[in-house]
Amino acid sequence: MCSVKLYSTSPLPAMQIIKIVCLSSLLSSSTSFKLLSSVGNARSTCGRLFNVWSDNRATREYQSFLEGTLPPFTLDIPSLFINSPASTPTLLHLQNPDDITVSITDEFPSTISGNDRFPIYVTLPPSELNNFLTTISLTPEQLEDLVFFSDSVIIESILRVHGLIGTDQTQAVLGVTLSDTVRKRFSTTAVKLDDVDSMNEEKWAGGGSVCGKWAGSIIRRTYSKLDVTAEFLEDEELGDNKKPIRHNFYREWRRVMFERAIGSMAVDLVGASHVKSSGGDSLDRKSVTNNHADEIVDLARELAAGLRQTMSVSLLTNFEERVIETVSMSDGMSELINPDPTADINYDNKLGFFVEIQKKFLTIASEKSDVAGVMSIQIFPLLCEYLGYLKGDEYLLEIGAVAEEEEAYVIKPRAW
Q1: pLDDT (tens digit, 9 = 90+) per residue, 83-103?
Q2: Are 294 and 300 in contact (CB under 8 A)?
């Protein structure tokens, strides 16, 4: 059995070197819990790994990625919208007059305008999504037609349980804000950065990204409602990074989704800490981003590093710059900071997503401590610091983000 030396990420007063057995022993078959949920076969619940399919989908996807073979750019056709009272206005305004709207309790039509295959836009918030996917009865073909949206939230863990992620599933980060509710017009959140890239071309950030079967339909529909001309669809000379919404492979889209969510969460948590330190004064996202960029970048880097270590997802370089320039705009620059992000109705699909990763790895360390000599593995010490400052050390113990024996080592809040 081989052993390696690793630096402990536990928030101790000084960095310590500990010996642990190879990571494979930490993740052996005797581990009794599932890391995130299952992957692979639809609605399967037996998997333990993060990024492994049981068939050749990963190989086919990577082959297409290397060849640059994206799915066909589909036309925008009359579609089905599944709405609820909690659906966001931006998604509701994607609807056209010839679309059909239903609630989760209504019967779904088998055809729309003579088409038996059409996009099914799921505009439900994350808090309603799992119940909807658990109760619906759709054919495998209809499941492929479902379209999901992930602006600043992470619904991957929900979709994974139901086998609804991967190359063919349509998912979107629109990268737009609603600018005119009467005319149903959108504004893009894409912004031009100050410098140029390695090819001496303009650098852009903050736009949308869509992947999957119906990506072309979503992009065409959104472009038709943008306050820009449709030249972006036809201009072959226009670099892909300059387009308001990009047609991407799933692996590229996933990076964009996590980047947008991490940036938004970092602004929320840093902002909430400064609301508390100021005695409860209201702060908006613009002021937090402008005045506390270093803290936002530090937290965003930690969350991104945790993704790379646990889920094999690496964000593209210079994501910190894009976060600072665009994340606030995507959610509304003047939106006030929520003083308690843990009370957000979408907490489980924002900060809670990373807290769950932290808890699962603490469980691994606890189960394997007698073999590996590891007390705990703290993937997100800075995240725990902010949560501890906002809610107290007892909260961290209550939610299982730190082990009981670590109570004395919880990082104390910095001098805000």
Answers
A1: 999 998 899 999 999 999 999
A2: no
Q: 230 near 223, Cβ under 8 Å?
A: yes
Name the average pLDDT for the chain: 76
DSSP one-letter code for 177: E
Each residue's pLDDT tens digit, 111-170: 999 999 999 999 999 999 999 999 998 888 899 999 999 988 999 999 999 999 888 899
Q: Do the beta carbons of residue 73 and residue 216 sit within 8 Å?
A: yes
Q: Number of folded domains in the chain?
A: 1
Dump pLDDT digits (tens) for 347-371: 999 999 999 988 887 777 666 655 4
- Sort residue 124 into left (φ over 0), alpha (ψ -120 to 50) or beta: beta
H or E stretch including 261? helix 250-277
- The one-character DSSP state at 133 is H
What is the rounded CA–CA span in Å between residue 11 and residue 404?
A: 14
Residue 278 CA to residue 272 CA, distance in Å, equals 10
Average pLDDT over residues 282-293: 89
Domain that holds residue 179: 60-251
- Bridge-based pairing state of the strands 120-122 and 146-149: parallel
308 lies in a domain? Answer: no
Q: What does the alpha-carbon distance between residue 198 and residue 153 come to, in Å, rounded to a whole number?
A: 31
Domain-located, residue 192 = yes
> In this structure, is residue 139 part of a structural domain?
yes
Beta carbons of 91 and 53 less than 8 angstroms apart: no
Give the 3-state secondary structure of residue 64: helix
**pLDDT tens-digit readout, 288-332:** 988 999 999 999 999 999 999 888 899 988 888 888 887 655 545
Q: Is residue 352 part of a domain?
A: no
Token pair 């907490």 is found at 347
Angle of CA points 142, 143, 144, to nearest 5°:
90
Q: Distance (Å, rounded) from C-alpha 225 to C-alpha 112?
A: 22
For 317, residues 6+ apart whose C-beta sits below 8 A from its C-beta are none
Contact of 391 with 397, CB cutoff 8 Å: no
Provide the pairing of β-strand 146-149 with 170-173: parallel
